[in-house]
Design brief:
The chain has helices spanning 91-107, 112-137, and strands at residues 3-7, 12-26, 29-33, 40-44, 47-53, 60-72, 75-84. The chain has 138 residues and is α+β, with helices and mostly antiparallel strands. The protein has two domains: 3-86, F0F1 ATP synthase delta/epsilon subunit, N-terminal (ATP Synthase, domain 1, Sandwich); 89-137. Strands 1-2-5-6-7 form a five-stranded mixed barrel. Helix 1 (91-107) packs antiparallel against helix 2. The longest helix has 26 residues, at 112-137. The protein is globular, with a radius of gyration of 16 Å. The relative contact order is 0.18.
């Protein structure tokens, strides 16, 4: 059995669910994980995570923001800083955040630390819209 667990500091999104495949936004690119994948531990970037529950056609998705992914013969464990499911996303608020962020970046002087935080938050908001809009097209 190949199982998936997704946890954040605040909650458990999925615990030991049987899956056929998992795709995570690795720090250096997307990583597709199938049963039999070589064991590894990697850092995650911000982006859309996808998985297919055993026996289902449709993939489930979540936006995750930074964390770690451990692959073992038993399955995949994802420890993410944040995770958002499609039904939890306020599309209008996310669009407004992106518009305000673009204005802010053009008009304010930002420190290196603030820039790093801004990039992470902006990437998360962009991934949320990509995920929700991508599902609407299907």
């Amino acid at each position: 059995m190949f199982k998936l667990t997704i946890v954040t500091p605040e909650r458990r999104l999925l615990v030991n669910q049987e899956v056929d495949e998992v795709t995570v936004p690795g720090f250096k690119g997307e990583l597709n994980i199938l049963p039999g994948h070589a064991p590894l531990i990697t850092t995650l970037g911000t982006g859309v995570m996808r998985w297919k529950l055993k026996g289902k056609e449709k993939q489930d998705t979540a936006v995750i923001s930074w964390g770690y992914c451990q692959v073992s013969p038993e399955g995949v464990n994802v420890l993410a800083n944040m995770a958002d499911l499609p039904e939890e996303i306020d599309i209008q608020a996310t669009r407004e955040y992106l518009a305000q962020s673009e204005k802010r970046i053009m008009n304010e002087l930002i420190t290196d630390e603030d820039w790093t935080q801004f990039q992470r938050e902006w990437a998360r908001a962009r991934a949320k819209l990509d995920m929700v809009e991508g599902q609407a097209k299907k």
